[in-house]
Amino acid sequence: MDFAKVPVSARATRVHRLVEQLCNRGVRSKDSLLGALRVGGRRADYDDEAYAFEGGPCDELRRKHFDKSLRLLWKAEQSAPFLDFKDANPLERTISQQALEALSSDERAAVERMSSAEFKALLKREYTLRERQALVNLLSAVGHGEAYAWLVASDMVGALKSTGAKAAATAQVLEEAKHFVVLRELILAFDLPVPRLTAWEYNLLEGVLRMDGLEKLFGMNVIVEGIALSLFGALGHLPGMEVLKLFHLDEARHTALPQNYFKVFPMSRWQRHSPLARLSRFRLILGALPLVFALEEDMAEVGLDVFEFGGSVVRKTAGLAKRVGFFLPVPLDGFVGMLDVVFNTYCTLTRPGHSYTRFSRAETSHRSVRGVEREILGAALVGG
After folding, report:
1. How confident is the model at residue 77 (pLDDT cuts 50, 70, 90)?
2. Is residue 284 a contact partner of residue 203, using CB atoms and an 8 Å limit?
3. Strand duo 52-53 + 46-47: pairing
4. 113 CB-side CA count, 13 A
């Protein structure tokens, strides 16, 4: 693939890796000790070293229960047409006598390609070894996040009010499970090492899992899903990565859940403005910022400027958080401007000839998916 490589500082990259390794060792050791003492520690029963939940993949069990459940999932529009459900797609309406599928035809085709020699040959033909590893590194960052999204969505079923909201959360549990297993197959098809969570991802995801009640909607549906939405939007047009556009559609719907829910069940003034809640949200965001620098080298390999990507993500997630009522200790607009300064300072130090750039105005989602984002986020938050 003929990417326009983004120049990066090799020295800065080595520093980032060293700092991350030291911080990772400290964070893991602390959680391991707290877990041994039974006074805390890691909340998720997830092994990011093995890229699987504790107990292993158990693919046979998955095929017998998860896959079969999806194959036999029925649609109310077909089975009970007298009810006001519109849950079947045009293809399913024409084949109502056949077993209904939860995965779309595009997703099924993508999974079949993933296990085929043709798909692996396509990857080797389109991308260099380093580019393939960069894609694995970037996709696995989201892949590990899907594991946590699955756990958080399960928690939210009990936290949300109303049948409709619980149904939405239950559907998200199913979609997060689908995302995890499909994306895992896609990543493993590269036949390359899958990296563990970085210390920054680990802190972010564990922090979201530890959040209380509706605050999980901020951590997962606004921040984590917002990052995933942008990454799928940036990579879904690449050869062999077309299935990511379907992930992008799901993520757009997930980021819309908080604003739709709070229209019906508004947060109280205290929930929006509580000093403790605002500080907790701010700490979560600050702890995730080093992830931007950790992704720089891999994004550069596939022609993406990590600071343009980060600026785009921050603009969208900050705008969504403000609209929903998840306020921070500092004005959101000022926070976005502050990050522009931080990113430009770093670029001045590591990129010779750098000139000041408003990274928060960048748009890294491909043009083919921006319409989806505008429908959810609004035209003001999505570039042309």
Report:
1. low
2. no
3. antiparallel
4. 19
Cα–Cα distance between 203 and 211 in angstroms, integer?
12
Q: Which residues pair with residue 46 across a beta bridge? A: 53
Helix crossing, 370-377 with 306-324: angle to 10°? 30
- Rounded distance between C-alpha atoms, residue 371 and residue 379, angstroms: 9
Per-residue CA distances from 84 to 78, 80, 99, 123 (Å):
11, 9, 21, 44
Residue with tokens 């890229």: 51
Please give the Cα distance from 256 to 171 (Å, whole number).
Answer: 14
Among 1.10.10, 1.10.260, 1.20.1260, 2.40.128, what is the CATH number of 10-42+125-381? 1.20.1260
Token representation of residue 131: 């580019």
Q: How many helices (H) and strands (E) does the chain have?
A: 20, 2
Enter the tokens of residue 27. Answer: 């964070």
For residues 218-247, give the mean pLDDT. Answer: 93
**Contact 209/151 with Cβ under 8 angstroms?**
yes
The SS3 assignment for 207 reads helix
Closest among 80, 113, 249 to 189, alpha carbons compared: 113
Could you tell me which residue, 189 or 97, shows the higher pLDDT?
189
In the chain, what are the domain boundaries? 10-42+125-381
Helix, strand or coil, per DSSP, at residue 36: helix
| pLDDT value of residue 127 | 97
Q: Which residues contact 133 (CB under 8 A, 6 or more apart)?
A: 190, 192, 193, 298
Tens-digit pLDDT profile for residues 1-52: 889 999 999 999 999 999 999 999 999 999 999 999 988 888 888 889 888 8
pLDDT digits (tens, 9 = 90+) for 109-130: 655 555 577 888 889 999 999 9
Q: How far is CA 10 from CA 198, 264, 340, 343, in A?
A: 19, 50, 22, 17
Residue-averaged pLDDT of the chain: 87
Tell the residue number behind the tokens 């080595």, with chain if given: 14
